[in-house]
Amino acid sequence: MSVSEFNIIQRYFRREHAAPGVTLGIGDDAALLMPTPDMTQVVAIDTLVAGRHFPEQTTATDIGHKALAVNLSDLAAMGAQPLWATLALTLPDVNEDWLAGFSEGFFQLAGRFNIALVGGDTTRGPLTITVQVQGQVDASRALRRDAAKPGQHIFVTGTPGDAAYALQQLQAGEPVADELLARLNRPEPRVTFGMALAGVAASAIDVSDGLLADLQHVLDAGACGAQLNVDAVPRSPALQSLDDTTALACQLGGGDDYELCFTADADCVEQVYRAAEDNALPIAEIGIIEPQSGIRCVRDDGSPYSPTVEGFDHFRDTDG
Ligand code: ADP
Ligand code: MG
Predict the structure, then answer these.
(1) pTM above 0.85?
(2) How far apart are CA 228 and CA 284, in angstroms?
(3) Which residue, by CA, sits nearest to atom 18 of ligand 1?
(4) Which domains are seen in the chain, by residue range?
(5) Which of 46, 214, 274, 313 is buried deepest, with most CB atoms within 10 A?
(6) How many CB atoms are closer than 10 A to CB 25?
(7) Cβ atoms of residues 253 and 309 within 8 Å
């Protein structure tokens, strides 16, 4: 390597800024962090592998953004406030343009949510990015999957399916509209809204594998089922030109949107809508939790609908 590991860290990752609770950040053997008294630590980690979690042609800036965004999304789904991040970077070579772009994408997003990069590791190998984030939440207000209970209303933020449609177009070699591509490459973690839902909503999950698959995780944890009105799932303008079955396949089965799917007791629904309005974030009520296991999809007129998709599972799909 022409640039030493030390120089990479100094040049691209060591940013001095006063972050809450950071006694000692990058530069020592480990970081010293001070949690807020009476708050519970929330920890999540996600790895992005080139060609697997993002197309090979994805720009470094987008990769930097996405590596942090998918982790912030996990904190959002717990209702947690982001505090600190660590970054394990495996690089095939030292490409300073790439590093500059990557760190720009990473720190732009980090700055918006005031999350500090406090450490990491840098190695050589096939391009792989692991980010670990830490945040905090009042444990009694955390959005746990096992809090889903019959009678609760099911909501989703934004327009799920956009990222999947963008990927489909990319893979088919078709041109992709900028706004649609941004839904794949620059997902917006619903951090502020997630924090607003803490203590208001019951359960939450971020949609990374597909709405149905992710909702099923919530239902498994809560030992319940759901009725879902597929016509109530918002469809973005980009998907309007598709036939209904294809559009629904994207909306119900497409991953990578990082929208929040959450449930709330009937007497909290008003507060949920107020939180959405405060955050200028569109939400939609898409179903109801029921005691009987499984997801029963229906249309607006109440007739049953059989979705043509299952959620994406890294160990179930054929290309491993
Ligand atoms: P050690 O050999 O003791 O693990 P390293 O040389 O790996 O130390 O790391 C030196 C310092 O730089 C540590 O504080 C570590 O957390 C930080 N660091 C290393 N790589 C990164 C990275 N990609 N991003 C942020 N901090 C990093
Ligand atoms: Mg190390």
Answers:
(1) yes
(2) 12
(3) 120
(4) 5-137 (3.30.1330.10), 152-298 (3.90.650.10)
(5) 214
(6) 19
(7) yes
